[in-house]
Design goal:
Elements (H helix, E strand, L loop, with lengths): L18 E6 L2 E9 L8 E5 L5 E4 L5 E2 L14 E4 H10 L5 E9 L2 E2 L14 E10 L8 E2 H11 L14 H10 L7
Antiparallel strand pairs: 1-2, 1-5, 2-3, 3-4, 6-9, 7-8, 7-9, 9-10
């Protein structure tokens, strides 16, 4: 990363008016650069698209463009997960959480509101598109369901992978995973 020779701070190469995005405290922000000259702390001034709030942000946090979660006309960016990962994510949330306005499929079948998402099989393939996650009963703390799962994944010290092997090698792979301290699901 380049640094600005006059300030010594990271030089993103952005200018006033540039569209930028950044992640902070489990939240994804988009906005426009208001003042690209770093202040005494080395932060630049950015106005968020949501609420038009001005925030000071470290240039190293900023990315030029709309960001990886940007989608056209309100369509979400589909997230793919397993039943095991979905249940681990749900278990990490505070009591009383709920979600709405999402499109969820389990093994290709859309959730019609009757599906028991608390008890999907660990090896189920799930897709999640859109959605608002509420961490309180009143619905005042709505966050993007997809983005919250992505941030949870990023901060988790566990990863869940799906592996495809020939049946002849299945036992060898299972033994190797368990030997490495992992757990085979399915």
């Amino acid at each position: 990363m380049k640094t600005n020779s006059s300030t010594g701070y990271a030089d993103l190469g952005c200018k006033n008016g540039d569209q930028v995005w950044w992640d902070q405290d489990w939240t994804h922000f988009t906005g426009k650069v208001v003042d690209a000259n770093p202040n005494f702390d080395g932060q630049v001034l950015v106005q968020t698209d949501c609420g038009k709030v001005n925030m000071r942000v470290w240039p190293s946090q900023l990315h030029i463009g709309m960001g990886p979660y940007f989608a056209v006309e309100g369509e979400g960016v589909m997230l793919r997960t397993s039943g095991a990962e979905w249940k681990a994510f749900c278990a990490s949330l505070p009591e009383g959480w709920w979600h709405e306005d999402d499109t969820i499929t389990v093994d290709g079948k859309p959730d019609d509101g009757e599906m028991d998402l608390d008890n999907v099989p660990d090896d189920a393939v799930m897709t999640i598109s859109g959605g608002i996650l509420h961490l309180d009963q009143e619905g005042k703390s709505g966050k993007s369901l997809e983005q919250t799962i992505r941030f949870w994944r990023k901060r988790s010290d566990v990863t869940r992978i799906v592996v495809e092997v020939s049946k002849a090698q299945e036992n060898d792979v299972r033994e190797a995973v368990e030997k490495a301290g992992g757990k085979c699901i399915g």
